[in-house]
Write a structure and sequence with these properties.
heterodimer; A: 165 residues; 0% strand; HLH_DNA-bd_sf (chain B); DNA-binding (chain B); bHLH_ZIP_TF (chain B); Transcription factor BEE 3-like protein (chain B); nucleus (chain B)
Chain lengths: 165, 247
């Protein structure tokens, strides 16, 4: 079976695929599901979803605001999960984020003078790290984010098709 | 329109032919015919010629012109009433003052010379108000500003202070990005306004995120199934399926 997906080894698609497959095999090797309890299944679902987002964010590195924000989020979440009394560390990351956002002068109601505040706010909630962006950057980031999401969906669809019976 | 050309024989209006949004132009002209002529009289004649360049810009913005023409009509009719107005003293005012002097001297060839000075004043004031308040791209007109570093075409009837120029540049960038997004997001029609497009984009992003979640759930199910059954069985089934797919 020849599936020449990744003709370009440095394209986003191939980078994401290799990382994601590696993460998937790691997850499956880590904990084979002993019981079919819903919590176990849910836990694995969460792990797979986080792996998908993480591998996508890592494929983009910190070149984009949204990927940087997503990596921050994932890292802080993993810190909090690993060590419940690492409040210091997570507090630091929170502080860094707050400082960054205050430096960039975010207000709860961004009046960009264009009049699309509600839609823009909703978009900001969807795109990771959107709260700290003005409308111009937000649209830029949204375009790249959509491109990455479509790649992610494509690859995951192919993998799921391959594995499902 | 013939009347206009007769009255304004001294001031050529070549842009009237070039201008694609003539309907908005003529409607605006109907509203205040006198001020229309008087307003244009003081523009430099040289500015008419580089209008051919504006065509390319205009063809890009033609679609926006269509959507904005309704907006323009509204803003024209309500231009006298309250509009967000920038600083009182801008260069526009100086130019309008110069124009006033020209107008009064040249309006003798017009219809009612007795009322023309007053009309010219109100006309210019109205145009200034609409100019400062109007954000839509109406008929395009270039004003030579030698000290500008940013080459933004100041459209007719718009203020030219640095704030509004920066605003216009920003808005141009935003429009450009929205157009790119239009190509990426399926279901976006060019005739839609910004708000609708943003809604479409939001829906699309949400649907993509949901798809990712659903697919990861599917992968979980597949891997769980794979875990529960013995490897050999699963491999067999997979091979059988691939063979059936090939045929």
């Amino acid at each position: 079976m020849n599936n020449p997906h990744h003709l370009n080894p440095t394209s986003l698609k191939s980078r994401f695929t290799t990382r994601f497959l590696r993460a998937l095999t790691k997850i499956r090797a880590q904990k084979p599901i002993s019981s079919s309890s819903p919590t176990e299944i849910f836990r694995r679902y969460r792990r797979i979803k986080v792996a998908a987002d993480k591998s996508m964010a890592y494929s983009v590195r910190s070149r984009r605001i949204w990927s940087k924000a997503m990596l921050w989020k994932l890292r802080s979440r993993s810190y909090r999960r690993q060590d419940p009394c690492s409040g210091r560390r997570s507090g630091k990351t929170n502080q860094a984020i707050m400082k960054k956002s205050s430096n960039e002068n975010t207000t709860t109601r961004r009046e960009d003078g264009v009049g699309f505040v509600e839609e823009a706010d909703e978009l900001r909630q969807l795109v990771p790290g959107g709260e700290t962006m003005n409308l111009c950057n937000l649209l830029d980031e949204t375009a790249h984010y959509i491109k990455c999401l479509t790649t992610q969906v494509q690859v995951m669809k192919k993998i799921a098709d391959f594995y499902s019976f | 329109m013939a009347d206009f050309s007769a009255q304004s024989y001294r001031q050529p209006f070549p842009f009237l032919d070039i201008d694609p949004t003539m309907e908005s132009l003529t409607q605006f002209a109907e509203l205040n015919p006198q001020s229309f002529i008087l307003d244009n009289s003081a523009f430099n004649f040289q500015t008419f010629f580089p209008l051919s360049i504006n065509d390319s810009l205009f063809s890009n913005q033609a679609s926006e012109g269509e959507t904005m023409s309704g907006f323009i009509h509204n803003s024209n009719q309500s231009s006298v009433s309250a509009q967000p107005i920038f600083s009182a003293k801008t260069e526009m005012e100086e130019i309008s003052n110069k124009r006033k002097a020209l107008d009064i001297s040249e309006s003798s060839s017009g219809n009612s010379s007795s009322t023309s000075p007053q009309v010219s004043e109100t006309g210019i004031k109205r145009r200034n108000n609409s100019g400062r308040g109007k954000r839509a791209k109406s008929n395009e007109k270039e004003m030579e500003k030698p000290k500008e570093v940013v080459h933004v075409r100041a459209r007719r009837g718009q203020a030219t202070d640095s704030h509004s120029l920066a605003e216009r540049v920003r808005r141009g960038k935003i429009n450009e990005r929205l157009r790119c997004l239009q190509d990426i997001v399926p279901g976006c029609y060019k005739t839609m306004g910004m708000a609708l497009m943003l809604d479409e984009i939001i829906n699309y992003v949400q649907s993509l995120q949901n798809q990712v979640e659903f697919l990861s759930m599917k992968l979980t199910a597949a891997s769980t199934y794979y875990d529960f059954n013995s490897e050999s069985d699963a491999m067999e089934r997979m091979q059988r399926r691939q063979r059936s797919l090939k045929d």
